[in-house]
Amino acid sequence: MELIHKWKHWQLFILMFAVPIIGNFIFLSAGISAAIENGDPSTVFEIFSFLPMIMLIPMVIMFAWQWSIGVGLQKYLPANVKLPVGRFKFFLIFPAVYIFFFVILIVFLFSSFQEAAMSNQPPEMEQLSTIMSYFVIIFLLHLFAMFCMFYCFYFCAKTYKSVLLQREATSSDYMGEFFLMWFNIIGVWIIQPKINELISRDNKDSELIDS
To answer: What integer is the mean pLDDT of 135-158?
Structure first.
């Protein structure tokens, strides 16, 4: 957590956005080239099964960044400001676990589609019915995971702004930060430098007290 506080905005940007974009481009290019070379379209399914795994990297970094803000910045709040950290932890952990299992499911489905494509056998009605049941459950879990993520954006924005203002921030105070957390491709460039500055200032104050 302290390590992420010290990361620069460009480091977060590379891990959260540049790595998955470059990784997806490399895997897609390799899959299409192999399919054209071998004359076998099913080769693309083999490559596609790896793409969701690449997306786990930015998701892990994003959740770790939010944890570093929502939990790690609590000690910088004024003594009279108490925020529901336990609720935030649950709402952050749930989508993290859900996305992990969702990626595993996507990999499994790609493997199943690949086997069906190679065998040239259409799926049975029973299999289709089972898949549809899974999709209904996934849809409901997905909605709840989205709610959890929006709550985390709100909580991180409120915590961050409350630390800066040294009082409990109101919705009008942190509305801009909420959208920066939501569109974190921009938010990391604005929020993280201020966190770096806050941590650096706190470390200097600690050194002065110790000396």
So the answer is: 92
Q: Tokens representing 8?
A: 């620069």
3-state secondary structure at position 160: helix
**pLDDT, tens digit (0-9, with 9 covering 90-100), for 170-197:** 999 999 999 999 999 999 999 999 999 9
Nearest C-alpha neighbor of 206 from the set 79, 76, 17 = 76
Model confidence pLDDT, tens digit, residues 63-90:
999 999 999 999 999 989 999 999 999 9
Which pTM does this prediction carry?
0.82
- At residue 167, the 3 state secondary structure works out as coil
Cα–Cα dist 33/104, whole Å: 25
With the C-alpha atoms ordered 41, 42, 45, 46, is the resulting torsion angle positive or negative?
Answer: negative
Q: What is the DSSP string of 93-144?
A: HHHHHHHHHHHHHHHHHHHHHHHHHHHT-PPPHHHHHHHHHHHHHHHHHHHH
Residue 163 has a CB neighbour count (10 Å cut-off) of 21
Alpha carbon 137 to its chain centroid, in Å, reads 21
CA distance 135 to 176: 35
Is the confidence at residue 134, as pLDDT, over 80? no
How many CB atoms lie under 10 A from the CB of residue 34? 14
